[in-house]
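fyi for ur records
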Amino acid sequence: MSQNLDIQEFVIAIAVKQQNPTVLTADFLKYSGIVPSDWELARPPILTNAAAQVVFQNGVSIIAEVNRIVFSELIASKEPQDVSIPVIARKYVETLTQVNYQGISNNFRGYVLFDQNNSTPRNYIFGNLLKPGLWQEFGTSPVQAALRFIYTLKEAQLFLDVNEVGLQLPDKSLLPAILFSANVSHTIVQDDPGQRLANLVQVIGNWHTDLETYKEVVNTKFLTSGNYQVNLAPDESFIFPK
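which gave:
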């Protein structure tokens, strides 16, 4: 048996209470030292009263909305020490200390490709995760399933979504795959703003612990049977279920 989880994306989402999204500009990020001054934009920033977005050429994206701030990064080819957004997120919250931060989640998305030896995502979901029944026999085409598993951890909750997706190759053909999306949610419950900020920074600094938890659950609880081969090339993309 050969199987691998290929982790593609890391997202830090911080819940806030009534922030002003227009604070988020490329100039603010650079002048305040949140991001390096030599980072180049991938496209013009978006700035409205309801939301703002800044995307850099290295794959780092920052979005500010009234009730949250989201940092995302493509990490498929990066070592943990080269991942940028934990440092960026920490600098952001330490710069904007007046914002009322409510909670934080570390989110990861990874894929498992299936070989062509009679193994498919559908067989995996319906043969390993679900019990066959009459619920499958309805409609004009085979039923599709999207599953969510909720795990209670010592200091967080892990929400793990399992979906069937297709990997689109350069020739437009599709390879079957399973998408494992994890949300590790932490509540920041301190009344004191200083302690709340310290707790938030601590969760950001321990992001690799959440990553290892995600990898452990998927690799040891979901990928323990079958023959699933992962090998993503940089020019491959996924078509996600609607």
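Helices lie at 26-31, 85-95, 121-129, 193-205, 207-222. thats all i got for now
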